[in-house]
Amino acid sequence: MSSAAPASTGASKAPVNSRGRVIVASLIGTSVEFYDFYVYATAAVLVFPALFFPGADAATALLSSFAVFGVAFIARPLGSIVFGHFGDKFGRKGTLVASLLTMGIATFLIGCLPTAQVSGWSFWAPALLVVLRFAQGLALGGEWSGAALLATENAPANKRAIYGTFPQLGAPIGFIIANSLFLVLSMNLSNEAFMSWGWRVPFLGSAVMVIIGLYVRLKLVETPAFQKVVDKGEVTKLPLGRVFKSSWRQLILGTFIMLATYVLFYLMTTFTLSYGTAAKTVDDAAAAAAAAGKDFDPSAFTAGLGYARNDFLLMLIIGVVFFGIFTMVAGPLAEKFGRRKTLIWVSLGIVGFGFLWVPLFGGGFAGTMLHLIIGFTLMGLTFGPMGAMLPELFPTNVRYTGSAVAYNFSSILGASVAPFIAVALWQAADGSTFLVGMYLSGAAVVTLISLFLTKETKDMDYEGLSS
């Protein structure tokens, strides 16, 4: 299963990726990728139901928009296979550049799409949105694992969990930038202008961030761990086949270790934005429909919290600040106590948090804000150690493929369906979020079981280990 290695630069050469370059390259790439991803997620709630599914009622349009949102998660495992193959066979650097370009081009083109309201585009606009959303998912499927390997394979001894938090910070940073831009636009534009052209600005503006990310990544050299595989002639011809043959147990456990993290994050962002901005009373919903020139069906009404869009976006941004802070806190904790033990305690916290959804959301502004802070704090604590733990489950010569496949197959189970399931449970319970909270707790229990079946990876031999 080993192939002739690419030309070696020589095992005696010292690594030239400085600490600052590793931090910036791993952080900026994931920030760009997650920014692009969250721009779509926010638009899926605020804009796309009306612009790309104008003939449907509000609930159906929202579910249709979330269905397109979920297309990217179907694409992500395919992206993990494609980019993982090239990352394990030809190296981390070039693969990371390719994933960033793919995401950037797809996001820019979404900003150029005609909407379904344009004559002759009622079919093609949603169809092209699906294609470009698929491309976004394909890119993100290869991005995260490569960025995590870039950080951890360049990390000093006993610093992998700390370095592994650098790419993880891309998630809160990308979210804050994307939603802050939406917030600024919606505050300074009329609703008509925002729906006409303002929503396009975040998509088109991603080109600037992509150019910066490419500049930094093109200056990288290959990671020391992969270079050792090259020098030993242990580069794998077919990484996917090798990882399924030698590390199938780690693939399964890694997939379910990520489950609670995915469910928590997409409930805290996409679902809470829907729930938080939905009308609180039938009269409010009827008035909003009348203002938008739409018919209103009282039987399809599901009560939300009734916050204005801008107000709730600001609340989300404040909550995500805690996500970023506790992502950084999680690295030293996982380094000191171990990845497994840290994640077990955090997962227990997520189980308990699921039981607090109804009382916290019922506590007015203070309760809702506390809900967002607790949820995003737990998100940081569970997401931070993943940058080290998932790659550590796999040998070096299949590490890109193995960690990417586990991470992205988990996205199908935990992320693609999370907003859809949550909306369905919310509507089925006539506006109560109790079942949504139980859904989260159940996902955390599955993650706990997987962690108990996994060995600690803190002290493993990370460099040069091949299957």
UniProtKB/TrEMBL annotation:
It is a multi-pass membrane protein. It holds the Pfam family Sugar_tr. The keyword Aminoacyl-tRNA synthetase does not apply. One of its GO terms (molecular function) is symporter activity. The keyword Membrane applies. It comes from the Bacteria. PANTHER family: INNER MEMBRANE METABOLITE TRANSPORT PROTEIN YHJE, SHIKIMATE TRANSPORTER. Belongs to the major facilitator superfamily. Metabolite:H+ Symporter (MHS) family (TC 2.A.1.6) family. This is Putative proline/betaine transporter. It comes from Crystallibacter crystallopoietes. The lineage of its organism: Bacteria, Bacillati, Actinomycetota, Actinomycetes, Micrococcales.
